[in-house]
UniProtKB/TrEMBL annotation, chains A, C:
It comes from Zhongshania aquimaris. Keywords: FAD, Flavoprotein, Oxidoreductase. PANTHER family: ACYL-COA DEHYDROGENASE, ACYL-COA DEHYDROGENASE FADE28. Residues 6-118 form the Acyl-CoA dehydrogenase/oxidase N-terminal domain. CDD domains: ACAD. Residues 215-347 form the Acyl-CoA dehydrogenase/oxidase C-terminal domain. InterPro entries: AcylCo_DH/oxidase_C, AcylCoA_DH/ox_N. This is Acyl-CoA/acyl-ACP dehydrogenase. Signal peptide: none annotated.
TrEMBL record, chains B, D:
This is Acyl-CoA dehydrogenase family protein. Residues 6-122 form the Acyl-CoA dehydrogenase/oxidase N-terminal domain. It comes from Zhongshania aquimaris. The keyword DNA damage does not apply. It comes from the Bacteria. Residues 126-219 form the Acyl-CoA oxidase/dehydrogenase middle domain. Keywords: Flavoprotein, Oxidoreductase. PANTHER family: ACYL-COA DEHYDROGENASE, ACYL-COA DEHYDROGENASE FADE34. Residues 232-384 form the Acyl-CoA dehydrogenase/oxidase C-terminal domain. The keyword Flavoprotein applies. Pfam families: Acyl-CoA_dh_1, Acyl-CoA_dh_M, Acyl-CoA_dh_N. InterPro entries: Acyl-CoA_Oxase/DH_mid-dom (IPR006091), AcylCo_DH/oxidase_C (IPR009075), AcylCoA_DH/ox_N (IPR013786), Mycobact_Acyl-CoA_DH (IPR052161).
Length: 361, 408, 361, 408
């Protein structure tokens, strides 16, 4: 048994961490939020230059053909640094859905552009109230809360076809039939948009997996990767709380020396450590494409959601009044926790999925 | 044990009920939180209207702008006005906290000058205790007042001052002697917020709002006549103010329950009403009994106060329980909404984005007026009588207490 | 508004507390547990002499005709002292079900014996797996977990009649057709029995209320009274924890001076205080026979269950290792908390009832 | 990252798998907890059988009764033996805690004499640290060892000693100098439990069992040769023992999850399977991710140990989380069962009254080996590196530390 990342993977993580500490401090995140720019283009270009979007794309399609484990360690660092880039949308979701649901020929056509970073992709398959219908290779309808919808070039959209069956379609988001409106959301560093389709040309993904099966598969993979982002965020929040309460004095002693604060931090650590360990198991199942993945992914996701909510909200409290200011970074983590937890359906949805899989196991 | 009014109370209730029906604005379906300055103007207008009708500060003496009635009359007023949309709790800190300080410590002439316009909100007051390095440890404050003939010269910084930007006056706690024990070296004053040497700077909150302020004092000069209580008696005066605060805010704190109940009654997920989902129902039951328990506990406290008691430290439990559940309810509602939960657009999000706004505002409610930890300390020490922790600042002069030289 | 008990009621409470402090210290409770005697006969005789079983029985039936508020303050003290007597079975349940479901004539016959203490009654109407059928004024079947089944003289039993409708029957538990077996339970100071009926003569309660409505009404009343017993237990547990941690030293200081212990006790106090306040509201609704009773009773019950579980289990922890010994009284409260919480159906059942009533309100 | 064995590990696994199949008892459906003394005899027989086959203490050197293999071999053994009903974790304190103390501090001759029969459980060991007035504060112990020529004379009382009633030897921590700092005045010894001056008295637990004991020392004389480590070095020796305990108990702690899963799969309420109830499912999900997280976290620790690391204080989290959920699961199951939940009869209650037994036993698991508060302190200080609280006993000689003169 070797329940840890390899030295090579740890090296990749260290490099990612150094790069992001330098290029993605919180002023970069704040810039995106303040200007409503959607993402930090310079950082995204660096990420492309480092080849991260290509990690899980096969070599024959222009990718690096590495395992998901490399993606897991990078996810941790993106989460820790709150990176305001369309990595979740384009890599965990956009790329993965093409790998899962597109035909070989479609993959050969679309994946190289994703690997090279020429194209930013997103997905519009969430469980929102809006709906889409497809007929004669055109789409009509709308999708809400689409991640990075205003900066992505392409979207894979779930829609009902003429036979009322769920299918996946690729659309070019620059097409003038599409109306795209930015929506205010809890975390403007992972911005959302509403997309309205009006006879928009669409290409059906024609791989062998059904749309439903492909979505489920991609969501499971993304659940593990998001869990690592959440763990990274938890660690950052714990570090912040530790630093602040250690520096600050009240009643003549360090705030961090009060048992109530120590125990608050211990509880944050415990939640994070459970989430991290569950994410590790998910990473193993993901990299081994093991049958355990379904349950492991739901477990990692639920554990990650609970841990990040706890760590990010108690980090605010540990900072006292300063934690409630716009100026301090506490709220950036808290906002990100909300954004990550609601992606792919919220906590109750994933808990129910977990139990389905546990009882079937 | 009954909830019935005495004949006199019933008559009073009937009187104000009919006055409110004629003069107060009904609750509208929507609403949501108003813009800060709009709400302020509305509140000033409402308080003036109430004062003109003779219903301001019902339990204050008439010569100070009140109605000369009892605490119970005030409770009846609160119960009735709660059925309307008026901003009746707006100046709760100024009137509830600063009022008693003036009433208790100022001269008769000052009382007659200052209190009536306070009661009608024609002049607005704020309270300045907290400082950057004195949060939970309020008595760690450093803003100095140095005697200079018949004047005091004030230097330093206050923070988390509610409504300072709208205030005409403020009650301020200062350090007048840093060479003795921290609790004995403080003195309380009031100050004109528009005088030279006082600068108010709003704090941008994590939710984008700016309800609180920093207030900077730079050689602000006040006459000794503005002193409230003895030199060195500031801590005792502050405790009196904080005790009155408990009564003023009792039962006012939002706990998020009514909005959650509304959500449970209306939301469907995958075509099913969530009110039929046992997981949602279990949360509803737990939050309901906490909500009901806070309310009933407040009623027990009001009964004790009506019988002549003082509001006990038990009131801390309403703040502790209510503030935490307010945040957790907002998060849970957002989780139920899934992908859509993150969207803050009032025209799309349930209940005009109430839960999204609350998830961002509620951390501040947990902090304001004392963190969860401070509330638990208050209950442990003041209610249960458990021993204090060994004090690192005990027996030390204020300027000898370890502070880590923190800048804020 | 006067949201408090009257001075007279507080006097009754003080007297009850003094009497029980004297006559019902924990050695009395332990005696019942160690000898499996079911109840303390001497204490029960004192309680009869004080007229407590007669409190809520109308004067024309030999009772005192007082309000339920007097019963509420006494319940608090019985809960505080863990009184090992059949008060719950005979007074809150046995007497109340007769008041709710028996005809005027039956009440006139049965209530005086309950008021005088000649008869100890219990009920067998819980939601257990066993079942009973009635036909031609005889009962067949069995009931499990019947409170004080081995010492009661009479039981009111829920059974299906020939038309498959639920009815209530009074049976004489001394009849030789009944087999009564003591069952081990978590709290032997509130003992349980299995009753097996074999053509046992039974008298149908023939009041105007249906059996179902009568049971619901009695359970709501009992829920409020049990909440007061729970509050009494919570207060005793908090007092124990406070006394022990104040006396005991660790690391050179009182254990009660550690913030983690202080906050544990504060949380116990908060839970108890919520339960107490909810119980007060229930007491008002009960005494006023207000329409609010249904919701208030469920609220008091759920709040009381949660508070007593928390207070009794954390009292053990506050005592450290000694809390886990048989010798210390901590476990007596913890056992009682389990016994009271499962009566009338457990926590999930009452939570669901609470929500039904809240949504209907 | 993989769970695959190396070829050598796979061969070892195959070997023990076939040995276990031939020699170990299969898990039966029912079982429940055995009577204390029956379980003891079964365990002794099993350990002897294992030792005879050469599988005892796999990671100990051969000359001391072990197999001279690695920690990973021990993990493989644990994984495989977990599929059988054998009491393999029975002597975990004696072998896991006392073993390393002897291994580290005893003379070569003592090691060769004492360790092999310990490994095969022919002689049984207990560990005596806790005292009536030294629980969470282990270093507050008072049992004295006073030098008398080449001997030490021991007086005092230990408590919470697991298995003392069955033990041949014990490791004991004593105060050898009360006039210096408490951490420097302790020394570790071992002692023959059957010698004069040693009396063992079982403690009746709240659940009726008697797993723990009080041990009284009344002028018990031991030779200086029984000393483990330097005079005054007892605290360091104790920390070494406690660190090894972490490894020994990693993943052994019951958390109650498997039994709850079984309940959810089988129980029907009002004819409906509870597995379809979203409220039950939500609890199942939360407890499952904790259960899975503890297991995965243990695997991470074992991986670190296999690479040469020491078991970190992170292990405290498994105890903290698992012990609390074990109690809460039992309570929740009982609540679900309603009126019937209180009945403890194994022939009536679900799973042979597992939940009723657990609700009474689980408070002890939360306490044994350190309370929740001690676990959180360990995580806060040893893992997160947060500052200690100001120490009331700092800089004081042991006999000057305030103790409130408590009797127990």
């Amino acid at each position: 048994m070797n329940f840890d990342f390899s030295d090579d993977q740890k090296n990749i993580q260290d490099q990612a961490r150094s790069m992001l500490a330098k290029e993605c401090n919180s002023s970069v995140v704040r810039q995106v939020i303040d200007t409503n720019s959607g993402f930090d283009e310079a950082l995204w270009q660096q990420i492309i230059a480092l080849g991260w979007p290509a990690i899980s794309i096969p070599e024959q399609h222009g990718g690096l053909g590495l395992s998901y484990l490399e993606l897991c360690v990078i996810a941790t660092e993106l989460g820790r640094s709150l990176a305001p880039v369309p990595f979740i949308a384009s890599v965990y979701l956009g790329t993965e859905i093409i790998k899962a649901a597109a035909s070989e020929q479609q993959q050969a056509e679309w994946l190289p552009e994703l690997a090279s970073g020429e194209v930013i992709s997103t997905v519009a398959i969430g469980s929102d109230k809006s709906s889409c219908r497809a007929s004669n290779d055109t789409l009509n309808g709308s999708k809400s809360a689409v991640l990075h919808g205003m900066i992505a070039n392409r979207a894979i959209v779930a829609a009902s076809d003429e036979q009322d069956e769920l299918q996946l379609y690729l659309v070019d988001l620059h097409h003038n039939s599409i109306q795209c409106t930015t929506q205010n959301s809890l975390d403007p560093s992972l911005p959302r948009a509403e997309l309205v389709f009006n006879n928009t040309p669409a290409i059906k993904l024609s791989g062998t997996l059904s749309a439903k099966a492909a979505i489920s598969r991609v969501f499971d993979r993304a659940a593990v990767l998001l869990a690592f982002e959440q763990v990274g965020g938890c660690e950052a929040a714990i570090d912040m709380a530790k630093a602040y309460t250690t520096d600050r004095y009240a009643f003549g002693r360090q705030v961090a020396s009060f048992q109530a604060i120590k125990h608050k931090l211990a509880d944050m650590f415990v939640a994070k450590e459970l989430a991290k360990s569950n994410a590790y198991y998910g990473a193993w199942a993901l990299s081994a494409d093991a049958p355990e993945l379904a349950l492991a992914a739901a477990t990692a996701r639920v554990s990650g959601i609970d841990a990040y909510y706890l760590c990010s909200k108690e980090n605010i409290q540990a900072h006292g009044g300063m934690g409630f200011t716009w100026e301090f970074d506490c709220h950036l983590y808290y906002r990100r926790a909300q954004a990550l937890s609601t992606l792919l359906g919220g906590n109750p949805y994933w808990k129910s999925l977990l139990v389905d899989r546990l009882l079937a196991a | 044990m009954d909830f019935k009014d005495s004949p006199e109370q019933a008559a009073f209730r009937a009187e104000i009920r009919s006055w409110l029906q004629a003069n107060a604005t009904a609750k509208s379906a929507g609403g949501g939180r108003k813009d800060q300055s709009d709400a302020y103007e509305d509140a000033k207008a409402w308080y003036k209207k109430v004062a003109d009708a003779g219903y301001a500060c019902l339990n204050w003496p008439k010569q100070y702008g009140g109605a000369g009635l009892s605490d119970i009359h005030k409770v009846i007023w609160s119960q009735e006005v709660a059925n309307y949309a008026e901003p009746d709790g707006y100046f709760v800190i100024g009137i509830g906290n600063c009022g008693p300080a003036i009433m208790h410590f100022a001269t008769e002439e000052q009382k007659q000058t200052l209190l009536p316009p306070m009661a009608s909100a024609e002049t607005v007051w704020c309270q300045m205790f907290s400082e950057p390095s004195a949060g939970s440890d309020v008595a760690g404050l450093r803003t100095s007042a140095i005697a200079d003939g018949d004047n005091w010269i004030i230097n330093g910084q206050k923070i988390w001052t509610s409504g300072a930007q709208h205030s005409d006056y403020g009650v301020i706690l200062c350090r007048t002697d840093p060479t003795i024990s921290k609790y004995r070296g403080m003195t309380m004053f009031f100050i004109d917020m528009n005088q030279p040497g006082v600068e108010v700077k709003p704090i941008k909150q994590m939710d984008g709002g700016a309800h609180f302020n920093e207030v900077f004092f730079n050689n602000a000069v006040i006459p000794d006549a503005y002193r409230l209580g003895e030199v060195g008696g500031g801590w005792g005066a502050a405790l009196l103010v904080l005790m009155n605060e408990r009564l003023a805010i009792a039962g006012v704190q939002p706990d998020g329950f009514p909005e959650f109940l509304q959500l449970v009654k209306t939301l469907h997920i995958d075509g099913e009403p969530i009110s039929a989902n046992p997981a949602v129902r279990e949360r509803l039951a737990e939050w309901y009994y906490k909500h009901a328990g806070i309310k009933a506990s407040t009623n027990r406290m009001l009964t004790a106060v009506a019988k002549g008691g003082m509001p006990g430290a038990e009131a801390a439990l309403g703040k502790l329980v209510g503030a935490v559940m307010n945040q957790d309810i907002a998060d849970y509602a957002i989780q139920l909404l899934g992908d859509a939960g993150v969207i803050c657009e009032p025209n799309i999000a349930e209940q005009q984005a109430h839960f999204q706004k609350t998830v961002l505002f509620s951390p501040g409610i947990r902090l304001a007026g004392g963190t969860d930890e401070v509330m638990r300390n208050v209950i442990a020490e003041q209610v249960l009588g458990l021993p204090q922790e060994p004090r690192a600042d005990k027996g030390l002069a204020f300027n000898e207490i370890p502070s880590g030289n923190q800048s804020r």
